[in-house]
Amino acid sequence: MERSFQLWLYSCFLIPVLGILPEPKNVRMNSVNLKNILQWEPPDFYKENVTYTAQYISDRTFDKCKNIILTSCDFSDISKYGNYILRVRAEFEDDQSDWVNITFCPLEDTTIGPPEVLVESLTGSLHLHFSCPKVENEPDMWTLKDYYYSWTYNVQYWENGTNDKLEKNSIYDSEVLTDLNPQTVYCLQVQGFITDKNKSGEWSQPICVQTTDNVFGTAFPQHFISLASTFQ
Ligand SMILES: *[C@@H]1O[C@H](CO)[C@@H](O)[C@H](O)[C@H]1NC(C)=O
Ligand SMILES: *[C@@H]1O[C@H](CO)[C@@H](O)[C@H](O)[C@H]1NC(C)=O
Ligand SMILES: *[C@@H]1O[C@H](CO)[C@@H](O)[C@H](O)[C@H]1NC(C)=O
Hints:
The chain has about 230 residues and is mainly beta.
């Protein structure tokens, strides 16, 4: 039997009659820096004409996206402090699939993106400036620090060409690396770390910067700005 005919059989008779519209597939939360997008794929045999409803359950059940044709739903505006069951189902005419449920706790489950890092090479030291990742859908300037009070920057640095990594932690938005060899290229990368949750963020891309001489005082500062690693 030809495959398209099988499909036609399924979609015209079997599923509506038996009421077995399959569930959306591969349902997962894509959450970075508290931007929370539930994603899924269409059920087997249904590429078109299917709609979806996605809900969250905390004390009650709320529709977040109702009868949509997209295969994603934005849950970024739910409270960050909740602990939810999210669920999505497929709908086709009068039929509907079972719910597919996942649990989601924004502060626990979101991926912490890398901070932005700016490096100044000054009198033999490296002066670092960090920007904590911003949180979408929140007032300007809100960053992950506003949600994670034990936020720390972990810095890893090494002489270019070696694997001998040194570490430094800072709770502030700046840090100075000292005791470096003069006129030497160092590379560094930075991650956010939530101490009280033992939760690590993603590392920024390595930035490599040459130190100046430390003996003769002020050299001209060299500025290096990392590529902002933004996630969509
Ligand atoms: C999802 O949860 C509902 C209750 O909210 C339950 O009836 C259903 O069986 C669950 N589905 C799966 C696939 O676990
Ligand atoms: C770092 O070292 C590699 C070789 O080990 C070299 O190719 C690269 O140019 C160095 N980077 C800088 C910024 O000097
Ligand atoms: C923190 O997490 C790391 C892995 O992510 C684990 O190896 C370590 O044991 C944890 N520390 C504590 C105190 O739970």
